[in-house]
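Bumping with the actual sequence this time:
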Amino acid sequence: MEKDFLAPLPISKLYGVGTKTQKYLESLGFKTIGDIQRIDEAYMQSLLGKWGVVLHQCALGIDKRAVEPYSQAKSVSEETTFDVDTDDEDGIVSTLVELCDRVIRRARASEFSFKTVTLKIRLEGFETYTRSKTLQQHARDMATLQKEILRLYISFGRGTRKVRLLGVKVSNLVCHADMQMNLFENQHQQKVEKIEEVIDAIHNRGLNVLRASVIKPPKKKG
């Protein structure tokens, strides 16, 4: 049985267990997947929330992803090329917001949190630039990504040059399950993510939602 096969393996082999989660569980006496199999699911939930339930099911061989079979993605990115080079500030900002939305929904669908955000700009002469910012801690909400990308765009200062292509990327990724203990300490972050998960679900049903967080950068002087 798969359960018996998994039992002697270290907990690091379990889907969703990263370095922080591994250290936390080991501090509680969990060394092997079998140790998790022998406890009650409710106890795992009390330790790690909904991910505790997922991990417990994986330990029992219920989830087909029980043993991590792949290397973690290094980044998630989206970009778009304009049909005609543009200097329409409202259009540029709206495009950046839409790219952020697409990136964040893909990252959350893969259960990733990010720490580095990157803006890509290709101008009318095909000069391509990238600007990056590494955050103090990992995040997975639209508001954070949008704020940092728009800040990067404002600081870039394209002047009167028109834009041909825009891109948004998040990197320095970790599995969200590995971030649970930090997120439990940040109730505001949890509330923001809960709201955005609802928006994701609505998007997945083919409906459109206007985000209240959409903002425009201040007008540039001169």
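The tokens above came from a reply further down the thread. The chain has two domains: 2-59, 75-204.
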